[in-house]
Amino acid sequence: xxxxxxxxxxxxxxxxxxxxxxxxxxxxxxxxxxxxxxxxxxxxxxxxxxxxxxxxxxxxxxxxxxxxxxxxxxxxxxxxxxxxxxxxxxxxxxxxxxxxxxxxxxxxxxxxxxxxxxxxxxxxxxxxxxxxxxxxxxxxxxxxxxxxxxxxxxxxxxxxxxxxxxxxxxxxxxxxxxxxxxxxxxxxxxxxxxxxxxxxxxxxxxxxxxxxxxxxxxxxxxxxxxxxxxxxxxxxxxxxxxxxxxxxxxxxxxxxxxxxxxxxxxxxxxxxxxxxxxxxxxxxxxxxxxxxxxxxxxxxxxxxxxxxxxxxxxxxxxxxxxxxxxxxxxxxxxxxxxxxxxxxxxxxxxxxxxxxxxxxxxxxxxxxxxxxxxxxxxxxxxxxxxxxxxxxxxxxxxxxxxxxxxxxxxxxxxxxxxxxxxxxxxxxxxxxxxxxxxxxxxxxxxxxxxxxxxxxxxxxxxxxxxxxxxxxxxxxxxxxxxx
Length: 483
Prior knowledge:
single chain; four-stranded mixed beta sheet
C-alpha cells in the first residue's frame, strides 16, 4: 500500500469519525443523554441550588455529585445532565442539619431550589444578662433594642445596643404594668431617639414617651388631657408628631405644641400606617379610606363595600401593606384580606381564630397564624420556583402544642416560630415535603423570640436555673459572602 493511499485512508477515517462524533458532542452540549434502557437520546434536566452555608455536599439518590460537573456562580450551584426521573436530593454540611427532598427532574427543565437553609447543630448562645426580661422590641434603624423587665417593684424599660451590648434603664414604674395586648408594642420613633411605652394602671391605658438619650419623660394622656387613648404611634416622616385614637376619632399631634391637635378621621375602628399613608376602617359601613399623614387632601376611598360581618363591627383592626393589599381581623380572630390584584378587586375570608398577620416586605405574601396552625396567603403570583398563584392559600404546618412567636425570615421563604420548649424553622417549599428544623431547645415553655434578620440574630427569653427569665441571642442564619 502506497504512502499516498495510506494518507487518504487516514484522512477519510478522521472525516467519518468527525461526522459520527460531532452530533454526539453537539447533543451532549445541548443537554441530551443516551438512554441505554430505551435506546434513544433523552433531553436531560438540571438542578440549581442556592444554600446557606455555601460549602455543602450534594447527593442524588445517595451518590455524591462530583465537583467537576458543578458550576458555581453567585452563591448558587448548577448541576447539568441529569436524566429525567424522581430522585432524593440531599444537601449537607459538617456541623449542620441535613436538608432533603424527593424531587422530580423533567426533560429540558432546571429544577430550582433558591432557599436551602441548614441549621447549625450547636449555636453559640449569648446571655445579655437582662434578668426578669419579658419583651424585646427592635429599632428599625439604629441597631437598638428596647426591653421590658419585671420585678417585685413593678416593671422597667431599658435600651440595649445590639453591637456593643451596652444597656441602660430609661423608664421604671411601681404603679403601672406593660399593656397586656401583645399586638401593641413599644414603638420606636423614626430616628430611634424616642420610644412610646403603652402602660396600664387600674385598667386605664397610658402612653409614656421616653427620650432614650436623656431619659426625658412625657405622659401623652396628661399632655393632651384625655383619659381614654389607644393605638398611639409615631408619624414616620415627622419625628415630633404622633397619632392616636380617642373617642373613636384619629388625631395627629405635634409634641412641642399641645394646641396642634388635628383630627385626621372620625368614627373609626382602627388605623395603620404604610408607605407614607394612613389607612383607617370607618364606621358604620366598614369602608377603608386612605389619607396623607397631615390630611392636606381629601381622603381616598379604597373599598366600596365590605362583607356583612365587617360592616358594623367596631372591633376590627387593620393591617395595611398599601392601598391594594389590606388585612382586617377582629377580637375573635376572623381574618379577611382585601386584594386589588390581576384578578380584580375582592375580599376573602382567610380564617377564624387567627392570632395575627404580617405582610412580607414586597407585599406578595402574607403570613398569619392561629393557636395551632401557620398559613401563608399569596397576594400576587410568585414566578420563582416553586411557582404560586395569586389568591393561593397554603397551610404551612399544624402542631398539637400551641404555636407562638411566628415571624418571617429574611428571604420570606421560611418561618421561625416556637412551640413547647423549642424554637423551630419551617420552609414554605412543599415539594417532596417541608423540612422542619429544631433550632434550639429551651428550659421554658413557648419562649418569647424575636428574629432580627437585618443583623442575622435571633433573640429569645428563657428561664435560667433559678426560674428567672433572661434575654439571650444567637447568630442565624450564617452570614455568607458574595461568591
